[in-house]
Amino acid sequence: MPAVLVTRAMVDEAMNALQGHCDLDVYTGPPEAIGRDEFLKRAKDKDGLLTMVSDRVDAELLDAAGPQLKIVANHAVGYDNIDVAECTRRGILVANTPDVLTEATADLAWSLILACVRRVAEGDRFLRTGTPWIWGPKMMLGHDLYGRTLGIVGHGRIGQATARRATGFGMRVIHNSRSGGVSFDTLIAESDVVSIHAPLTPETRHLFNANVFRQMKPTAVLVNTARGPLVDEAALASALRAGEIFAAGLDVFEREPEVEKSLLDLDNVTLLPHLGSATAETRAAMGLFAVENLLNGVTGKRPRGLVNP
Ligand code: DGY
């Protein structure tokens, strides 16, 4: 039977689907996520790896695994944690789990949009302090969404699903992506809400930086459910503190799982621990998709989520 390493226990549906099909090595901690040394050690002699977004798959890891490795199946749609070019050069398949997490991630982008424009998390935090309060006409004012502009950066599956939801809120939608839409400069100047859905590449790293924040509306909100390094977090914290933009909602972080310290004391930031696809239904679908990719890869079949060019 093919030998496989699963770097983190998935939901039961996905774990059960592996039983009986492979010689299974599942990392179960502690610590919760597999450390680099353990990953290098446990990858050795495996035919397939089922990896998480937090696992770096590079030449060193591929060397440690050995030449028999056939597939790296990522439990995610994003695969910036994997050196795909190096895998391709060595004839190793790389696969991801597109489509199944599109709607859940778009829902989470909207959770952050609403939390930011209407100060939801801030209101909740305020009440928990026990500070005396009474309804007031100027208390915790946010901004309307109706009639305003949503700017989508990266118009792939999740960007489009996020855009679709804007119809119900009566918003105008503009987008910017490699394949079209308005220019990036127009998007950041005209948008009241900017939602990031672009992949992390050398070109998109720090796409949102001090210069960009200065060009955004002071009432604008920035939401990132894509990848942390698209945003320069230190510059974002300065822009939020200076009132250059109104608020930000982050589900992903530049040095994940670390959160930039200067963001933590700001009331106009809503932070979530990378929950974009975190629903029971979606995680079952992602896990089953990743297992299907893995088992196809180790048995010489073409995985449905193949990403190598
Ligand atoms: C993905 O799939 O890329 C997410 O970031 C993990 O849920």
From TrEMBL:
<dbReference type="InterPro" id="IPR006139">
    <property type="entry name" value="D-isomer_2_OHA_DH_cat_dom"/>
</dbReference>
<protein>
    <submittedName>
        <fullName>Glyoxylate reductase</fullName>
        <ecNumber>1.1.1.26</ecNumber>
    </submittedName>
</protein>
<comment type="similarity">
    <text>Belongs to the D-isomer specific 2-hydroxyacid dehydrogenase family.</text>
</comment>
<dbReference type="InterPro" id="IPR029753">
    <property type="entry name" value="D-isomer_DH_CS"/>
</dbReference>
<dbReference type="InterPro" id="IPR050223">
    <property type="entry name" value="D-isomer_2-hydroxyacid_DH"/>
</dbReference>
<feature type="domain" description="D-isomer specific 2-hydroxyacid dehydrogenase catalytic">
    <location>
        <begin position="4"/>
        <end position="308"/>
    </location>
</feature>
<dbReference type="InterPro" id="IPR036291">
    <property type="entry name" value="NAD(P)-bd_dom_sf"/>
</dbReference>
<keyword id="KW-0560">Oxidoreductase</keyword>
<feature type="domain" description="D-isomer specific 2-hydroxyacid dehydrogenase NAD-binding">
    <location>
        <begin position="111"/>
        <end position="276"/>
    </location>
</feature>
<dbReference type="InterPro" id="IPR006140">
    <property type="entry name" value="D-isomer_DH_NAD-bd"/>
</dbReference>
<dbReference type="Pfam" id="PF00389">
    <property type="entry name" value="2-Hacid_dh"/>
</dbReference>
<dbReference type="Pfam" id="PF02826">
    <property type="entry name" value="2-Hacid_dh_C"/>
</dbReference>
<dbReference type="GO" id="GO:0047964">
    <property type="term" value="F:glyoxylate reductase (NADH) activity"/>
</dbReference>
